[in-house]
Amino acid sequence: MKILCTYLSVFQRLIAMVNSPDETWQKIDEENSRKNLFNLFAFPLLLFAIVLFFVSKISVFQDFSIITAALETIFIAISFVCAFFICKKVCQITTEHIYKIKLSDIQLDKSVIYALSVVLVVKVIAELLDFPFLYLFWLYSAFIFWKVCDTILKLQDESKNREFFLTINTLSVICMPLFIEYILKLFI
């Protein structure tokens, strides 16, 4: 029952990020536990996404073998985990370079995990439905970094600095998992 509640809270958080982003980001900003962020949001979401991705590959697309589906699923998991660490470093560097602010680990984790969660969920849904148009929703991660500027960084500027910050971090969150996945698929 506890596991079901965890998954339910993950989906409620994802929906709230779209329906009421201001309230949700205020709650996210008040959370200060890295353990809860990972154990109650990031890990359950990643696990659910990779299981759903695997099931969709072997059930929806009949031409996939179980081994190929398993490899692609592993590649997705590896690419998002590796992308998290790289994107976290990009976010840290851009924040320190542009705003001269050193963020705590929890602030960096929240920024990157929530942006990557959008990319992961959209990827799985687009693959499941075989509808590439849905990939446009990856751009919602730019809005997440916009909210990061307001709530976590406490910045209210509308300058070129913010545009640069948003562009660099959004591109890293969208492109890094794809790039890592592409590299991994070269080994097949």
Give me the Rg, rounded.
Answer: 17 Å
How many DSSP H or I helices?
A: 7
Q: What's the count of strands?
A: 0
N-to-C CA distance:
39 Å
Roughly what fraction of the amino acids lie in strands?
under 5%
- What letter string, H or E per element, gives the SSE order? HHHHHHH
Largest sheet: none
Low-confidence stretches: none
User: How much is the average pLDDT?
Assistant: 85
Q: Which outline best applies?
A: globular
| Percentage of residues in helical conformation | over 70%
Write up what this structure looks like.
- The chain is mainly alpha-helical.
- It has one domain.
- Helix 4 packs antiparallel against helix 5.
- The termini are far apart.
- The mean pLDDT is 85.
In short:
This protein is mainly alpha-helical and 188 residues long. It is built from seven helices and no strands.
Write the layout of secondary structure elements.
Layout: H1 2-19, H2 21-30, H3 34-59, H4 66-99, H5 105-129, H6 140-152, H7 160-185
Properties at a glance:
188 residues, mainly alpha, globular
